[in-house]
Amino acid sequence: MSREDQNLRDIQHFGEEGGVVPVVDVAATSTFLDPKDMDKTFHSELEGCYLYSRHSNPTVMAFSKKIAAMEGMPAALGVASGMAAISSSILQLTGGEGHVVSSHVVYGGTYALFANVLPRWGVQTSFVNTQDLDAVESSIRPDTKVLYVESLSNPMLAVAHLQSLSKLAKKYNLKLVVDNTFTPLVISPAKHGADVVVYSCTKYISGASDLIAGAIVGSQDFINSLIDLNHGVVMLTGPVMDARIAHELYVRLDHLPVRMRAHSEAAMFFAKNVEEQGVKVVYPGLESHPHHENMKELMNPSYGFGGMVMVDCGSIDRATRIAEQLQNEKFGLFAVSLGFSRTLMSIPASSTSSEIPEEEQKKMGLMPGLLRLSIGFVGDNEVLLKKFLDCYNEQE
Ligand SMILES: *Cc1c(COP(=O)(O)O)cnc(C)c1O
Q1: Does any ligand 1 atom lie closer than 6 A to the CB of residue 152?
Q2: Mean pLDDT over residues 128-136, rounded?
Q3: For the chain, does the N or the C end have fewer beta carbons within 10 angstroms?
Q4: d(C-alpha 28, C-alpha 19), whole Å
Q5: What pTM value is reported for the model?
């Protein structure tokens, strides 16, 4: 058993009557038996009291502790969505002024947030190729506060060189913020120097594509700052996690190691076999992937290389026809998002990355004919492979 599994196991919250899972504490507000304690709590003179659920909630805290343990980091905070995790972290770290250096290969929503929304809140962003350390270094300004990357980037599956990016961040006193949505358990960014890890829990951490949620993981001070009564961005802009969602995710975290291994195994089988059949495929577990060696250095070996695979179909038109036929053949579902038990297929150039201007798309090597597959683990790998190859070869 690897350490991350053990860390998850070590977190145990009992239900009220000794239940093996915690109760869902849905209360929006908590009673102070001694009215003087309320005043003290408001003035941060009393720890450990629940006040109001936008500030803190026992069930959200239980989930947060568990995801912090999984990351090997001191603290965490469940929030309403992945975008809430990203925007709140950046606004808290920059204090609403200053500059972010971001990888140019990021989720389309993140790109649009940085390019179009954060400037209205006083935060500017430079997008650079973070594989090029000289380019990163020369884009750092005196007012730069954050270096932002995805550990395995959406959608090109570039592997961030966290080892050297964290050194650079230390040298210039920046916070390294890593979106680890594609690789929970597979990569533990804190081990490689990340200061803050953000998640869209909507994806692998949920695993059922039935809810929207996010998490921020970091130092105790940073997590406390997010819910500070007077200055906390999560507390005061309000994208908090609901206790019912926190309970769902708390329970599902126990299955995450099993699910990640199953996704990785199915994806490796698929990628290896389609590559052997001459299909152009991008998967960090393949030797043909340009960052395969770095992936091996970064990963916690027992979870595999993750479940995300890109296939080059040559053109949007052909990618669309292949995906349509694959859906009819019940290979997978044509839908954005990832981390579902079943295979999800999408065409990033016309969907999740469409926020990124075409010229930027070209620079990051995002070919229009790319079909993104979030490989599921339900079904027989051999049967699914045959279905894929049949459709791929049938569509000219
Ligand atoms: C989906 C996603 C997000 C946004 O998360 P939501 O939960 O949809 O807000 C952020 N980053 C990455 C890498 C994603 O895939």
Answers
A1: no
A2: 96
A3: C
A4: 22
A5: 0.95
